[in-house]
Amino acid sequence: MFPDDDHPLAELADEVLRCHGRLLTATANLGTEDGLTGAQLLVLTTVVRADRAPTVPQIGRSLGHSRQAVQRLADALVERGLIEAVDNPDHKRARRLVPTAAGRRAYDRSNARGRDWASRVTEDMSPAELTAAAETLRRLRRRLEADDHPR
């Protein structure tokens, strides 16, 4: 299809991975005032922003982390009262994670701390550009999730 160059997806994947690393580094301290590590904040954010309460294995697959690593982070968040595990009608053992009111407040505070930074790093980008980029990545992620067996 692209005889002389890599497929455009290869370049996109490279940029996404590089951006992912930079975002993790840049946002790692947003939860420190609430005593959260960057990884804990990442799991809390995933739980708060989920369309449907996720399970630990779902979060692991979504973030590319092991179930065990996510379980340790989720346990710490439960212990701190930021999320809770509720029964899952679809599975006896894989409970769903939901944020508590305290968890939503911690998430909101971290977002507030990140607003100035986010505005600064996107100052020459329009909201429409960022929205279009997010939608493109969302569509690609959903296709990758549906096609979990590359040929």
UniProtKB/TrEMBL annotation:
BP-aspect Gene Ontology terms: response to stress
Any GO molecular function: DNA-binding transcription factor activity
Location of the HTH marR-type domain: 6-146
Record-linked Pfam families: MarR_2
InterPro entries attached to this UniProt entry: HTH_MarR-typ, MarR/SlyA-like, WH-like_DNA-bd_sf, WH_DNA-bd_sf
Protein name (record): MarR family transcriptional regulator
Taxonomic placement: Bacteria, Bacillati, Actinomycetota, Actinomycetes, Streptosporangiales
